[in-house]
Amino acid sequence: MATKHNIIVGQSGGPTSVINSSLAGVYKTAKERGYHKVYGMLHGVQGLLDEQYVDLSTQIHSDMDIELLKRTPSAFLGSCRYKLPDIHEAPDIYEKLFKILNKLDIEVFIYIGGNDSMDTIKKLSDYAILKGHDQKFLGVPKTIDNDLALTDHTPGFGSAAKYIAASTKEVIRDALGLSYNKENITVLEIMGRNAGWLTGATALAKTEECNGPDLIYLPELTFDMDKFLKKVQELVHKQKNVVIAVSEGIKLADGRYVCELSGGSEYVDAFGHKQLQGTAAYLAGFLGAKIGCKTRSIEFSTLQRSASHMASRTDINEAFMVGGAAVKAADEGDTGKMVVIDRVADDPYMSAAGIYDVHRIANNEKLVPREWVNKEGNYVTEEFIDYVKPLIQGDYPPFMVNGLPQHLVLKKGGKR
């Protein structure tokens, strides 16, 4: 068998509580399959262009380290939001990048990320083919937003959904305890940008002992302020306590994000994405002024993607699986592809890794189907709940030291 060279792996975009499980899958599988070295980009492609990387064998020394890495939130290697320019716009950047890859004797380049990261894989694989380079480029899915095309779901989504559903139940209990003889409205703001998968997951809080949120608003449907106010007023007259879940990305008919009504969304990243925050705060203030009762807004914010203590076992295992599958795909000669998760069965739930051309995935958003939202547009259907429920199952308890979770932390020292 021919001697294998080196692999380099990076992490990009917003992290998740299981993104490092995919990194662990890449590292463990690469070592098992005989790759000489596994390098990690420090802060993704942006860091690699500055020749910032690390030999992962200096960081991971044992199976215990692998297990710690799987339980560690955030991007172990550091992430970035760097938009790789088109080939014709900045050929010098590509030349520099491939010079670094050649210097490190890289055979396989693996990028763990979401939509924008898959755009990077697409561009690099296209350039390699155009210029006759031998490196293989594979994408590993990652995003709590669950908006990548062609994969049944994305690693990170299940754990975020689990955290959101559990936190929603806890917020509802808290609100009910304070609702004697006075009206109380709580508005929860959930991440997801243009896709409502995470916001819909609040419906999982509806269990035998909990009614769940009263209203759920996804960004796939136009948000009508007048209809919203009327519906909340109806609920307040029927019950003292009202809990509403809204996506950070809900929009008005004129295309404006609701959060823009409060003067937010001024920051725009390299991919043209506005920073979305303040939706719940604006709506809570709006309802308080119109209805005249106590209101509260809660942003789960980055807790949704960093709460590794609430990670689902299904999610951790699938994240590890797709990392390893990327290495196996490279071994089989694939390039310009992304690993996907295929749902094999629902009862009992089973999944497997597949692979698709990244050109069919990059820059495409998978949204919640209209038929998975009720007719009124203010709640999700049983089909939605049946889709999400298997993904939050099982626990992956952290290793506790002095009462707190232990994490694996990068030992910094510049490039290795």
Summarize the helices and strands and which ones pair or pack:
Blueprint: E1 6-11, H1 19-32, E2 38-41, H2 44-49, E3 53-55, H3 63-70, H4 91-103, E4 106-113, H5 115-131, E5 136-141, H6 157-176, E6 184-190, H7 197-200, E7 215-217, H8 225-238, E8 241-247, H9 279-291, E9 294-299, H10 303-306, H11 313-331, E10 337-346, E11 349-357, H12 382-388, E12 400-401, E13 404-405
- Integer count of domains: 2
Number of strands: 13
Biggest sheet overview: 7 strands, mixed
Give the mean pLDDT: 93
CATH topology of the largest domain: Rossmann fold
Strands of the biggest beta sheet: in what spatial order? Answer: 3-2-1-4-5-10-11
Q: What is the terminal-to-terminal distance?
A: 28 Å
CATH class of the largest domain: Alpha Beta
* Count of individual helical segments: 12
Plain-language structure description:
Helices cover about 35% and strands about 20% of the residues. By secondary structure, it is of the alpha/beta class. It has two domains: about 5-145 and about 310-365, Rossmann fold (3-Layer(aba) Sandwich); about 155-305, Phosphofructokinase domain (Rossmann fold), CATH 3.40.50. β4, α5 (about 115-130) and β5 form a beta-alpha-beta unit. Residues about 265-275 have low confidence and may be disordered.
Summarize the structure.
This protein has helices at 19-32, 44-49, 63-70, 91-103, 115-131, 157-176, 197-200, 225-238, 279-291, 303-306, 313-331, 382-388; strands at 6-11, 38-41, 53-55, 106-113, 136-141, 184-190, 215-217, 241-247, 294-299, 337-346, 349-357, 400-401, 404-405. The protein has 416 residues and is an alpha/beta fold.
